[in-house]
User: Which sequence fits this backbone?
């Protein structure tokens, strides 16, 4: 277990935020494994314990967020159909995001093809991770199990970052599918609300986007003591 913790720490130290590049795939696989194994690892330092706590919290938050939104959406689709459910996505999703974003934590949903371009457009790190999720999906990996975690550094400081892939399900297609899946009325309403909407053309099983969660960390010296 210690080996994995060390592996994780090495990645953490190597990474400088804007340098995820051609090594991403191998990197992703290793970090993914490390993150996965870390859930049951014994923390080596106070910093590792802190990161494990954030990982655990992030996983719970992502799951809760998706379950709450998915449940509400499903109910409204059954009750009133897709036209009526647009409001659920428009209101409930941003409300949940701001409810969960507190005490130094930021919670978002992002996508390489966003509908809400203001809130859903990924930053460079998120884009790289989303690309790695898509690559994984093309290689036949189960989207529902994809997650990624890393310590990053940028102009605003150091962050614990976590992403969890959001799979496209059949029920999503009436608002995110091919043109044959979306009724003309729904398309019209979506374009009225989101003139720059890019979130169409998906098929079931594809990566629709991801939950993205980050926590601001203290400075390097306090963590590496
Ligand atoms: C009734 C129409 C509708 C359905 C069905 C629907 N969505 Fe959406 N989706 C939306 C709208 C509207 C937004 C923009 C919400 C906002 O303003 O934040 C959105 C945004 C998103 C986003 C945030 C990123 C972005 O593109 O802005 C994700 C991720 C997402 N949807 C995933 C899903 C998934 C997964 C499903 C199926 C479980 C689904 N949606 C079903 C209408 C829908």
Assistant:
């Amino acid at each position: 277990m210690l080996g994995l913790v060390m592996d994780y720490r090495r990645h953490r130290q190597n990474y400088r935020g804007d340098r995820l590049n051609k090594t991403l795939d191998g990197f992703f696989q290793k970090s993914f494994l490390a993150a996965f194994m870390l859930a049951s690892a014994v923390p080596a330092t106070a910093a590792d314990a802190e990161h494990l706590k954030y990982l655990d919290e992030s996983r719970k938050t992502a799951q809760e967020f998706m379950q709450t939104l998915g449940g509400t959406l499903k109910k409204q689709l059954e009750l009133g159909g897709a036209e009526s459910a647009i409001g659920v996505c428009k209101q409930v999703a941003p409300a949940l995001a701001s409810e969960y974003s507190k005490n130094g934590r930021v919670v978002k949903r992002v996508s390489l093809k966003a509908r809400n371009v203001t809130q859903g457009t990924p930053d460079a790190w998120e884009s790289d991770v989303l690309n790695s999720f898509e690559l994984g999906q093309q290689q036949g990996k189960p989207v529902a199990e994809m997650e990624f975690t890393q310590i990053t550094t940028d102009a605003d400081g150091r962050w614990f970052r976590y992403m969890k892939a959001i799979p496209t399900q059949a029920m999503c297609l009436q608002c995110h599918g091919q043109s044959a899946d979306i009724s003309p009325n729904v398309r019209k309403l979506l374009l009225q609300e989101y003139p720059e909407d890019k979130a169409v053309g998906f098929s079931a099983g594809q990566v629709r986007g991801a939950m993205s969660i980050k926590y601001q960390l203290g400075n390097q010296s306090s963590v590496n003591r």
Summary: Residues 2-217 form one domain. The longest strand covers residues 157-167. The mean pLDDT is 85.
